[in-house]
Amino acid sequence: MWSDFENETLIHIHKTAKILKKRYQRAGEFYSSLYNILGGISVVLSIISSTLSWSSSLDIDSEKNILRLIISFATLSTIIQNYYNFQDISNNLLLTSKKYTKIQYKIETLGNTHPDYRVPKPEPFFKMIKDKMNLVNENRKELSNCMVKIFYQKKDDSYSYLEETHEKYKELKEDEKLNYSKNIEHDFTEDEESDRDIP
Fold first, then answer.
1. Rounded to 5 degrees, what angle do the CA atoms 115, 116, 121 make?
2. CA distance 17 to 190
3. C-alpha–C-alpha distance, residues 137 and 80, integer Å
4. What is the DSSP letter of 144?
5. How far apart are the C-alpha atoms of 98 and 22, rounded to whole Å?
6. Torsion on CA atoms 122, 127, 132, 133, rounded to nearest 10
7. Can you give the pLDDT of all 199 residues of the chain as single tens digits?
8. Is residue 22 within 8 Å of residue 153, measured between CB atoms?
9. Cβ contact 23:152 at 8 Å
10. How far apart are CA 11 and CA 169, in angstroms?
11. Distance (Å, rounded) from C-alpha 188 to C-alpha 165?
């Protein structure tokens, strides 16, 4: 039976999955942006250095020094870009975000169904969700607390529309509840195979 306590637990897990999904999505986008910026700097500086070396005789020492400086910056930018594997880090973080998204959608599918018509019982459903969350948590890259506070979190991340939905469910009459029972046939294990496909 889905009591108020179970519904509040469902809302709490929904908020947690949504917060983590958003954080990892923003972190992935941040690393992707770093990769693109450093790549762009390398390309521009390489073009400038090539242009300077072909278009001038470089007899003056100051011109040689400027060229050396530009080549050094281009090389440093390329080394940083490749050494830290920003693109790989970004891909892994975005993959983690997608895993949290799947968990969020499972919770929403159940949360959109009136508690009186929910097929899965609370205990097995929460166990399944907890197991999935633990699996993702164990295999994810940890984010820096400082970066989370500055870049990766926003105030409205903890908003869950399921809170309002749950309050609405409480006020419904018996015949109105049927309008919120459309998801009762959903099989919550139907995408287990696709979950296993994700490394």
1. 70
2. 20
3. 28
4. P
5. 10
6. 90
7. 888 899 999 999 999 999 999 999 999 999 999 999 988 888 888 888 777 777 666 566 676 777 778 888 888 888 888 888 899 999 999 999 999 999 999 999 998 888 888 888 999 999 999 999 999 999 999 999 999 999 999 989 999 999 998 888 878 776 666 666 654 445 555 555 444 444 4
8. yes
9. yes
10. 14
11. 20
Phi, psi dihedrals of residue 182, rounded to the nearest 5°: -65, -20
> Please, what is the angle between helix 122-139 and helix 86-111, to 10°?
170
Phi, psi of 119 (to 5 degrees): -75, -50
Domain boundaries, the chain: 4-197
pTM of the model: 0.79
What is the chain's Cα-based Rg?
26
Do the beta carbons of residue 161 and residue 44 sit within 8 Å? no
Task: Check if the beta carbon of residue 128 is closer than 8 Å to that of residue 42.
Answer: no
